[in-house]
Specification:
The protein is α/β, with parallel strands linked by helices. It has helices at about 35-45, 60-70, 115-120, 135-150, 170-175, 190-195, 205-210, 250-265, 270-285, 295-300, and strands spanning about 15, 20-25, 30, 50-55, 75-80, 85-90, 95-100, 125-130, 155-160, 180-185, 215-220, 225-230, 235-240. The chain contains 10 helices and 13 strands. The strands form 2 sheets. The protein has a 9-stranded mixed sheet, sandwiched between helices. Helix 8 (about 250-265) packs antiparallel against helix 9 (about 270-285). The protein is globular, with a radius of gyration of 18 Å. The chain starts with 12 loop residues before the first strand and ends with a helix.
Length: about 300
């Protein structure tokens, strides 16, 4: 079972591990990448967070360093001879994005080093996905980072984040071996069930599959409908509030970061889930994946 009590009173250090990239809108670039988004929102909720990735020796790489610094978000951005990651974002009239990714970028080639492994030994929480692991170099580095974390005091969050054909059964299998919390959405679930050989593609069936592998927290989001969190023997289901969405990029990352941050700080599943829903809804009303939370929303967190 997953026990958060061992983190009681601890200043939790966390890392968003993987892609730092720019979401390029018609109006210009916005910094993003799921692990970076996760770290940003963890920091807003009181964790000692940093981003671990790689950027190029180019204008976007320079901009990434400056923007993360302006948000007071520490970052270990290893310098690469590849270009900084970017994705062209097109929003439909409901604010839902579609993506066109650059390939063989800096975040595909995160090279392992002593400094990176030292960081791994000092963090209690890490979030990672499949996108950065599309590159062999980054895949191996992510695995080494996760293995280097302190076994007795670690939570590794696998937010699968399936994009196009940038994943494989092998990467998912290796990642699940290094996972305490798993998250996916309604579009990803059928693909994951097929990979796992599950004929009945339901959240409950996949939850049972994860539990059999020793993963006792499963976060399942269904966009504008609802979200479900399976934690040990508890199940929490919350409806998604009706809002006027401006931009849904990063909403899922803020949801996961908020939920996990609050659980690790001793909050109940019901409270953590409720606040994760509110925060992700707020993010949808803002442009870009890293908006500052409103003062009113921060006051309700009881941190």
């Amino acid at each position: 079972m997953l026990d958060f009590s061992k983190f009681g009173g601890m200043q939790i250090k966390c890392a968003g591990l993987g892609e730092v990239l720019f979401d390029v809108y018609p109006t210009g670039p916005k910094i993003g990448g799921a692990p970076a988004n996760f770290a940003f929102h963890c920091k807003q909720l009181g964790l000692d967070a940093l981003v671990v990735s790689s950027v190029g020796n180019d204008e976007l790489g320079f901009t990434a360093r400056n923007l993360l610094a302006s948000k007071f978000l520490p970052a270990l951005l290893l310098l690469s001879d590849k270009c900084t990651g970017a994705v062209n974002v097109v929003l439909n009239k409901e604010g839902v994005p579609s993506y066109v990714f650059l390939e063989d970028t800096a975040y595909d080639n995160i090279k392992c080093c002593d400094l990176l492994l030292e960081v791994a030994k000092r963090v209690q929480l890490a979030c990672f996905g499949t996108l950065a692991q599309r590159g062999v170099v980054s895949h191996e580095t992510v695995m080494q980072f996760l293995d280097a974390m302190n076994e007795s005091c670690r939570i590794r969050v696998f937010d699968v984040n399936l994009r196009r054909n940038y994943f494989s059964k092998e990467v998912i299998e290796e990642s699940l071996k290094r996972t305490e919390i798993f998250k996916c959405n309604e579009d990803e679930l059928p693909v994951l069930c097929e990979i796992a050989g599950i004929k009945n593609a339901t959240a409950q069936a996949y939850r049972d599959y994860l539990a059999a592998r020793g993963i006792y927290c499963f976060i399942f989001t269904e966009g504008a409908k609802q979200s479900t969190v399976f934690l040990n023997d508890e199940i929490s289901i919350k409806k998604t509030p009706v809002i006027k969405a401006v931009d849904t990029v990063g909403a899922g990352d803020s949801f996961t970061a908020s939920l996990v941050s609050l659980l690790m700080q001793g909050k109940s599943l019901n409270f953590a889930h409720e606040k994760a829903v509110e925060i992700s809804a707020f993010v949808c009303t803002q442009q870009g994946a890293m908006p500052e939370l409103s003062t009113k929303l921060k006051e309700t967190l009881k941190l």
